[in-house]
Amino acid sequence: METFEKILVLNNEYEANLLAEVLNDREIPYGIVISEDTALGGIMEMEFGWGYIEAPARYKIEITRLYNEISKK
Predict the structure, then answer these.
(1) What's the pLDDT at 1?
(2) Residues 5-15: tens digit of each pLDDT
(3) What is the secondary structure of 3-34 as a DSSP string?
(4) How many whole angstroms separate alpha carbon 57 and alpha carbon 63?
(5) Distance between CA 13 and CA 26 in Å, rounded?
(6) What is the DSSP letter of 46?
(7) Helix (H, G, I), strand (E, B) or coil at 44
(8) Where exactly are the structural domains of the chain?
(9) How far is CA 4 from each of CA 29, 56, 60, 70, rounded to the nearest angstrom?
(10) 61 or 73: which carries more pLDDT confidence?
(11) Model pTM greater than 0.70?
(12) 7 and 47 Cβ atoms separated by less than 8 Å
């Protein structure tokens, strides 16, 4: 099993779901880690973003490219 590393920070749940759909379609292994802290009233989210995507290092360039494509407005 490959080791996962932090690839990029996600801004919100919508962004996470959209990227997850694309990664699933391309069969790229990943995990989404949410910076949720109900006890601290959202301080972690303000400091570290909504969450982040982690994946094997060999997918970093592809995931970053895909994220940039779906983030264009």
Answers:
(1) 72
(2) 999 999 899 99
(3) PEEEEEEE-SHHHHHHHHHHHHHTT---EEEE
(4) 10
(5) 20
(6) H
(7) helix
(8) 4-68
(9) 9, 4, 10, 22
(10) 61
(11) yes
(12) no
Residue whose entry in the numeric block shows the structure tokens 């982040």:
52
Contact 45, 35 (CB under 8 A): yes
Cα 59 from Cα 73, distance rounded (Å): 24
Per-residue pLDDT of 13-71, as tens digits, reads: 999 999 999 999 999 999 999 876 555 555 544 555 789 999 999 999 999 999 999 98
Q: How far apart are the first and last CA of the chain?
A: 36
Question: Would you state the structure tokens that stand for residue 4, as one six-digit string?
Answer: 């996962």
- 27 φ, ψ (degrees, to nearest 5): 55, 40
